[in-house]
Structure formats: structure tokens, C-alpha cells
Amino acid sequence: MQKEATSPQEIVMQMVMGAWVSQTISTVTRLNVPDALKLHGPQTAIALTQRYGINADPEFLQRVLRACASVGIFTEDADGKFGPTVLSDVLTSDSTVSLKKLTEIFGGTWWRIWTGLFDAVRTGQPQAKAQLGMEYWDYCKANPQEMEDFGEAMKSNSLSSLKAVLEQCDFSDVSQVADIGGGFGHLAIELVKKYDRLNGIVLDMPELIPIAQKHVANEDSDTISRIKFIGGDMFEDVPPANVYIMKHIIHDWDDTSCIKLLKNCHARMEGNGRVICVDAVLPPVGNTGSTPAKFLDIDMMVFIPGKERTEEQWNALYNAAGFKIVSIKPTHDNLGTSIVEGIKS
Ligand SMILES: C[S@@+](CC[C@H](N)C(=O)[O-])C[C@H]1O[C@@H](n2cnc3c(N)ncnc32)[C@H](O)[C@@H]1O
Fold first, then answer.
1. Residue 260: which CATH number?
2. DSSP string, 190-221
3. pLDDT per residue over 172-193, tens digit each?
């Protein structure tokens, strides 16, 4: 492990080197080293390349593994063998709390976009187009593998916030929930599994729907029969439902787009409905509390015209679309996400 920083220079240096740590961990994950060590036990870099299919230069691989071992991702012994740890397990494909896809994307496309942060801050414009040649969602449409990886990354990092929605939101009197921008449908699927009279609609971009349907093919037939995937544009229209749920959607967009989307939900809402957004709520101005949401906000800035919002900003959005917030509950996930529940005002 790195020694504890004490001087201001050491503290700042460790923070700045965080980008290198992130890229190094992403690289070994993209090479599938965590999976190989979990399967075959401790190995040298040469054995990993010669016997276990890791496609890398052995000397360079040994050096990235050594760096990873210094931050606890792998063990390292005096024979030059690297072994799995509880941290590397999170980077494997079959971990129940896998961060593999998310970590891979961090070091791939997202790393490229983040190189534009300086320009984003100078110009007030997101930089996906400058870095990828097109906006991020268009890039996903043009690259189905990116779209699938992104969907998987979102799903695998949703476990805690999803559990919080199941525990904290009551759907016992609801017959139709619409998960807008629902990705692989993971949230809607867990909800219909918990409530046997509930039906779910998952609305997402048409290009994502066949990928999502492939990923849910192994769900039981009752669950599948109560989930409908619809391809469409949420800014044009949303399907009718009693409850609209949107997880990590509002933070992707500017205020005008968010109000349009919330108004679409308002217009189509049936009965005494609710709108539930699962997203970060930033602490108010002057509160320097540490939350991952403050850096997720920078991710939104550099990627897309989105942002994280304070409670005051959330209230303004809901009110502009004809809703009022009735509760805000933290999910205690690793992104600082809360559940913002509202009803028609
Ligand atoms: C940040 S992801 C969130 C996915 C999912 N709700 C979750 O939290 O795991 C945003 C989702 O919005 C979808 N999306 C983007 N633009 C959309 C649009 N115009 N209409 C419908 N869905 C859209 C994306 O395909 C993606 O699945």
C-alpha cells in the first residue's frame, strides 16, 4: 500500500497520481488478469502470457501488476508471482458486485473524453464530440459493443441503489411502472419480482432494446411476461404508467431537457401517480462534505450537457414540471445517490 501522505505536497501528489492508478487498474482489468488469477491462482507475468492467454508484453505486464500490488489489488511474493485479493475479485466477471465493465470503460472511451476536461471548463461545452467525433449517445448507437458495455456497467453498479429502491419505495398499490432510460431493465425486473401484480415498461433507445432483451433472456417466464421493452425517445413521449422511475437519467441532461422529460411523465401519468428519480442530491453551497457525486458532476460536465443538482435545484425542476418533492432518501451507494420522490402539485 502507498505510505500515508503527510505533507501538503505528498497529499496533492497522491491525488494527482489517482489518474495513473485508475488507468493502470483499468488496463489489467481489460487484459482479464483478475479473472485469470481467480481461476488459476498466483502466477508470474510470464506464465500469465504464455499459459493463461493474457495478451501482453511479459515485462510490461510484470510492471503494471507490481504497481497494482502496491495498492492492494493483487498480492506479490518473492518469486514474482501475483495473486488475487478481495479487491481484484471485484474486477472479475463473475463477482456478484462486479465493477469489471465499469473499470474497463473508465480506462477506454471515458478516459479519452476526460482528456477534454480543460476545454470543457474553458468553453462551457461538453467534449464527447471533440474527442469521439460525435455525441456520446450517438457514439453508442454507432458502436454496439460500447452500448452493451455501457449497459452492463450501469447494471453492475446499480446493486446498492436498486436494493434501496426496493426497501424504501412502496409499489404495493401500483399496477404499471415505467422505467425511463431503463437500460437492461434491471430495476423494473427487480420491482416486478417483488410485487406480483405489478407490470413494468422499460423505455430506452431503440438500438439498446435488442441488447437488453438478450441480457434478460434467462429471467423466469413470469417476470418476462410482465416486462415490456419499448424503443423510443423519452423527450418525444413516454408510455402511460402510474409511477415513473428514472435512475441516473436526470443528471445526464440540462434543465430545459429535464423539464420537458418530467412534463412528458406528468402528461401521461395515470391515477395518483408518482415520479421517482434515483440520482445524486448535492449538499448545499458551502458544504465541503466529500461525496463521489461532486466528481460524478464533473463526469456529466465533460460528457454530456448534464449535471448533479442540489435539493434546491431538484425542487426547481420538479416544480417547473408540475410536481412537488415529497421525500429525498439516500441510498448509500458508491456514487452518492438518493431517491427523489414526487407527486403532482
Ligand atoms: C446513465 S444510463 C442509466 C441506465 C439505467 N437507468 C441505470 O441507471 O442503470 C442512461 C440511459 O438513458 C438512455 N437514453 C439516452 N437517451 C435516451 C432517449 N432520448 N430516450 C430514451 N432513453 C435514452 C441510455 O440508452 C441509457 O440506457
1. 3.40.50.150
2. HHHHH-TT-EEEEEE-GGGHHHHHHHTTTS-H
3. 999 999 999 999 999 999 999 9
